[in-house]
Protein 1
Amino acid sequence: MRVPIVAGNWKMNKNVAEAIAFVNQIKASLPPASQLETALAAPTLCLVPMIEAAEGSPLKLMAENCYYKDAGAYTGETSPRALYQAGIHHVILGHSERRTYFHETDELINKKVKAALKNGLCPIVCCDDTMGRRVAGKKVHWVVSRILADLHGLSDDEICHVTIAYEPSWAIGTGDSADPAQAAEGCYLIRQTIADMYGDNVANNVRILYGGSVTTVNINSLMAKQDIDGVLVGKDSLNPTTFLQLVNH
Ligand code: PEP
């Protein structure tokens, strides 16, 4: 059974004091992790204080990125090993903002996915899509090739620790969500690709999220779709009341 997930992605928002206050406000109102997993990806600076604030609650804290080297002369990068040692067990990789603004390629993301797994981190790997490709009928090729490249070389055991997020670029931060059928189609394509790579059994256990302008209004219709196991939420994860409404949808 795939336990559903509601995950927030704060991006480069909130300082340490705001992050701690947020955790203190929500932590007593979260469902047990066996029923629904709740996660927040926060700026690196906030993660350790958030872990301390969240102690004893089911809230999972996630990094928004990491490098593929464990240590060394890589100024400004974050080590996956150091994240794990600090108590962080999840990391978002390949977000469309990383690909667009920081020119991250599938090759680099594949290295990061492998390094994260090697260090005990569970990655959420993001797969984007554009309206142009969708209109031109190219989405199938795009989604399949991106998943093949980002997950290249992972073992059956490793893939079981990976979550994938289908995040169409036109829907991220625009207020213009994919409709539930479009979102489910993207997630279905990803699951089929995993099935081709690893077989049905593995594909049926890998969790696939939808992300892109998820709100308290559309979350129910999205999560009702069979292939959508959860949501990755940017803007509407920034307010504690709204985030709790999403979690308790
Ligand atoms: C995101 O950044 O992953 C995202 C889905 O953002 P938003 O919910 O604001 O569209």
Protein 2
Amino acid sequence: MFFSRSCATGSAASPFVPAEDDVFLVSYPRSGNTWLRFLLGNYLSGQKMDFFNVHAFMPDLDENPEAVKQLACHPRFIKTHSPFRPDLNNVIYLVRNGRDVAVSYYHFYIRTKKVPKNFTFAAFADAFAKGRVGYGLWNNHVESWLENPPSRFLLVRYEDVKAKPVDELVRICNFAKIKVDLPRLRSAVEASSFENMAKLDAAQPRRGIVPKEKNEMFVREGGTNYSSYFDEAMNAEFLKAHGAAMRRLGYL
Ligand code: A3P
């Protein structure tokens, strides 16, 4: 049913209406959403995911609602960066240590030329702590979902996926009511490894972006090394805004 799924196209005319079995992959940007889609896509599709076909298999509701409407496979896996919205159920909410998110978002801003190359991390961290970045305050996003979890809600931590990807993928499959085939699942984890995704990322430049250095890659570091970016003052400022959400998620 779900392996080698052919997501044939349907009609694009109607507005998006969530189906009862839709599964939403929800996160604040730079929390590992693309990795999660590669993992599930490599597991379910019978194809090797890359940076083009992944959008066809698990499209972005905000960027490309038409592609979502055209998915004919079930359950549909749909990505969104939306803060809480009441019409979504079966939500897999992916979180990552907010300070690593800030570091990753900083490099993404430079990659996409939203800020100049010489923009300092200190200036970005200040903007991030005040919610003056694309998706606003990180803690508001996190808390919007944690305070209003839909009846079916699964919290997944990026760091746990890194530490035990197979276990986390099993948890996700169980939540999404998908058959668990361990050998196949291990292959999906391997195909979606940081190294493999970084190679694909380098081979598939997108949106006219040709990275000149590692920090400009989409699959950049995959790390948890925020401490080399945050000095004491930045840390204090960050925690003033985001401390409660960080504690709630077990990051403090
Ligand atoms: P870094 O910039 O810290 O490296 P998103 O897809 O939600 O925008 O998240 C992007 C982040 O996920 C980037 O973080 C990226 O490197 C990381 N990532 C992508 N693929 C990964 C993988 N296979 N393993 C670990 N991290 C990965």
